[in-house]
Specification:
With 392 residues, this protein is of the alpha+beta class. The chain is built from 10 helices and 8 strands. Helix content is 56%, strand content 13%.
Length: 392
Amino acid sequence: MLVKLDRYLLRSCLGLFAGLTVLALALLLLERLIRIIEIVSGSTNTAVAAGMMVANLIPHYLDLALPGAFLIAMIITIDRLSRSGEIVALMATGVSLYRIVMPYLGLAVMLAVLSLFISGFLQPLSRYNYRQIVHDLQHKSVVTAFQERKFVQLKDRIVWTDHVESSKRNLGQTFILETEPDGARHFLTGQTGELKEAGDGTIIISLNNGAGGTFRNPDESTTNNLISYGQLSWPMPTSDGEFRDRGEDERELVLPELIAASNGAGSTAINPVLAVASFHDRLSRAALLLILPLIGMVLGLNLGRTPRSGGIVIGILLLLSVQKLLEYGLALAESGAIPAWAGFWPVVLALALAALIMFRRLAHGRILLGPRPIRRRWSPPLATRLSETTQT
């Protein structure tokens, strides 16, 4: 019966948890879509490039989505079981809240291990892969930015051409506009154009039978320059060769490499202070998941005649506050202002202690906030007392 109870309690939560995780993951990915579209706009295979970038972002955002989705799923599940009277029925048969929360604690352990695997292994590799894809796209975008009858942003330049051959080297009528930091704008036009690659990898555009000029702020006294030319070669901005090796950022290190870097070992030149702070940050965020079942039980349980509401709002605000405290602790630990452990574990332990105390009070039938309930002395029923008085 107890095994069936565990299955029923987990089944009541897992579907909701999966749905909330997908929803949170989608919402978090939305903020990167505009950036991704800008990066892949000059790619020849936009769908594949965007798909690879999104796939490498999933581990990062999945690790962020797990705590919130799990806590909200716990609160909603416990609230639903309370309102339907199922928890009251279980407690009437002798099943305590300690027993009811056990399957959720087992699920939290599994999620903590999953979170540590994501943040310790998948996320560093996917972060490096994402940066490598961005570098490759920006390096190749000089050639692929020229698309037929499309204005394409290429760093501080806007390019347009009415015709591109399949080789991506010969162009039709071409227009290029470059904006300087001081607001000055340079433009070039050409009846035809050609893209060439120099020996050092620099892409040079050669324009034929065109014109160019510079326009500055009309308030300035400087004059604008206009020229016409038969042929003009102009270097286009490119990235520097191959992408760097993984490991220049502590967030790109997997856990064994991070431990080695924190001890001053390893082949990377990572500051040990940053490595230790990153290690404690990943470990503390995984440990935070172990506390969420107790918090979800406290915020979701309704045993009174008047059901309480607002548990989800309180849970979200609490989780956001803890996340901000951990981020602040990470900043202090990375700057060396405090020891690395002091930026994370006091917050986690304080939250765990508060959740445990409140859950114990709830499990023993006490009011969460306030004095202990008054226990009245037992007195026999009125009929019994009247009978005793008559006999006397």
